[in-house]
Structure formats: structure tokens, C-alpha cells
Design goal:
It is a single chain. This protein is mainly β and 87 residues long. The protein has 1 helix and 6 strands, in the order ββαββββ. The longest helix is centred in the middle third of the chain and has 8 residues. It is globular.
Length: 87
């Protein structure tokens, strides 16, 4: 199984914390992030590839952030809200 890691920080953290884990897929790796508290900023990585930058906005609600610097010729990137609760 592939190895992933998350960089996690919140308002009380002085430095980001790295959490290493193994998951079957990026989807399963994202499920690990569901356990962090509201207001937490996370980056999900697959080795050296950034998969997602996100902030937990509330229970089962994430704000997804751009993973690449914005192109000045394009309109500004808008965050995307994703509800990860049961459908």
C-alpha cells in the first residue's frame, strides 16, 4: 500500500505536525483527515506530490484550497466547500 502523510496545523500550533500513514488510495487517505478538529489546516501528500490543501470548516465540511500558485492572467481561485458527511 502507498505511504501518505499530512501536514496539520491549527490556531494553537506553533509548527505544523507531520502524520505519516499507509492507505490503499488517495480517497482512503482523505478519510484519515476527517478525524481532525474544526479550524484545522491540512495538506495531504503522496510522497512528494501535493494532493490537497484544505481547512476543516465544520463537522464534515472542508474548504479546499488551490494546490498551485494562481496564474495572474486567470481569475482568482475560489475555495471549494466539500461536505464529507454521509449522503
Amino acid at each position: 500500500m502507498p505511504a501518505y502523510f499530512m501536514m496539520i496545523s491549527d490556531a494553537e500550533a506553533r509548527a505544523a505536525k507531520r502524520v505519516d500513514f499507509i492507505a490503499e488510495s488517495p480517497d482512503q487517505a482523505f478519510q484519515v483527515a476527517r478525524n481532525v478538529t474544526d479550524g484545522t489546516y491540512c495538506e495531504l501528500w503522496d510522497h512528494d506530490k501535493l494532493l490537497a490543501r484544505m481547512t476543516k470548516s465544520g463537522a464534515e465540511l472542508w474548504q479546499l484550497l488551490p494546490t498551485t500558485p494562481p496564474n495572474p492572467e486567470q481569475s482568482p481561485a475560489r475555495p471549494t466547500l466539500v461536505n464529507t458527511g454521509a449522503v
